[in-house]
Write a structure and sequence with these properties.
- The chain has five helices and no strands.
- It is globular and about 50 Å long.
- The mean pLDDT is 93.
């Protein structure tokens, strides 16, 4: 029964994350600066912030149950962040010989995701002092 409950929380979180990622793509599809896929970029960075917050809270307290961690980190962030989409989009830029956009998007995503994760941890660190 424990496994079924865990699968339920991961599944619900994944569905909500996937829907949110698609919504982010729709919301940003008309942005034209640098012609990069802002929906994927923002999903990856925001998802890393959320998972940083979850990791920070989980490491500092017992406020977050296993089920909520599965829902948020494994489910929601797994469905919301988009590594496969990211790699595909970088590959499209490379195939189109748009190396500036490929490298800008690659660096912005990885740096933004790393910074967002660290920011999530710092927010929890300061909030629990």
């Amino acid at each position: 029964m424990q496994t079924l409950l865990a699968l339920f929380f991961v599944g619900i979180g994944s569905m909500l994350g996937g829907l949110s990622r698609y919504g982010m793509t729709l919301a940003t599809q008309n942005l034209s600066a640098f012609s990069i896929p802002y929906g994927t970029l923002l999903s990856n960075v925001a998802g890393c912030l959320v998972i940083g917050l979850v990791a920070g809270i989980s490491g500092k307290s017992e406020l977050m149950s296993t089920e909520i961690r599965l829902l948020l980190a494994t489910g929601f962030c797994g469905g919301f962040t988009t590594m496969s989409s990211f790699i595909y989009e970088v590959g499209q830029f490379v195939q189109d010989k748009e190396y500036f956009f490929a490298s800008t998007y690659f660096v912005a995503t990885l740096a933004g995701a790393g910074i967002a994760f660290a920011l999530g941890l710092l927010i929890i660190e300061f909030a629990t002092r």
